[in-house]
Amino acid sequence: MSIAILGGTGPQGRGLALRLARAGTPVVIGSRDAGRARAAADELNARLENAAAIGGDDLRGAVAAADEMVILAVPYAAHDATLEAIRDLLPGKILVDIVVPLADGDPKRVDMPAAGSATEAAQALLGDAVPVVGALHNVSAVTLNDLDHPINCDVLVCGNDLAAKEKVIELVRRLDVAAYNAGPAVNARCIEAITPILIRLNISKKVPFTHAGLRIWAPGA
């Protein structure tokens, strides 16, 4: 199964491409600039051994190459425009929206769209023919790119299509990460809003670590 990552030249997308390819899943990075995407793919492939291939193409080429899932990892400012550019190619595929609508100039705050969250905005824009699943909102890009260490958090997955959520949960678990069904798309409002809280903690001089994540603990653990 080949996965497309739109915005794959950015830190979050690059980290996901590395992790997925190392787990054996072929990836195609999508960018507005196909040459930039191919250059990023070559750079990432050079970091990996015994991994699935990472390719690069423009946005539409990457989506066309995806068998079933397209991960949206662009900055929020490009969220809707990117979806508009590829929406006709998405029926029959699952859109995994990892975008967080951070406030312009202040990543310690969210600026939610009228739909309530980026996940809900994507579902409203694409319609019911394309299942949208929100996931991977709270994972540090630095953590994703640091292949010498495991991912240090769990992943909350939300959306209105149960079958699509289960497929995304299965994909995330390939990264040796616990993933949980966190309910319908409306719950993305809570999940996306956790990210600026983590950013605030991670840059605080009073917190003795950085790149913290969210973990679900069992009682007594």
From TrEMBL:
Coiled-coil region: none
Keywords: Oxidoreductase
Start and end residues of each Pyrroline-5-carboxylate reductase catalytic N-terminal domain: 3-101
Molecular-function GO terms, alphabetical: coenzyme F420 binding; cupric reductase (NADH) activity; ferric-chelate reductase (NADPH) activity; NADP binding; oxidoreductase activity, acting on NAD(P)H
Entry keyword Transcription regulation: no
Gene Ontology BP terms: copper ion import; NADPH regeneration
GO CC list: plasma membrane
Pfam families: F420_oxidored
Keyword hit for Oxidoreductase: yes
Protein name: Pyrroline-5-carboxylate reductase catalytic N-terminal domain-containing protein
Organism: Halomonas organivorans
Lineage: Bacteria, Pseudomonadati, Pseudomonadota, Gammaproteobacteria, Oceanospirillales
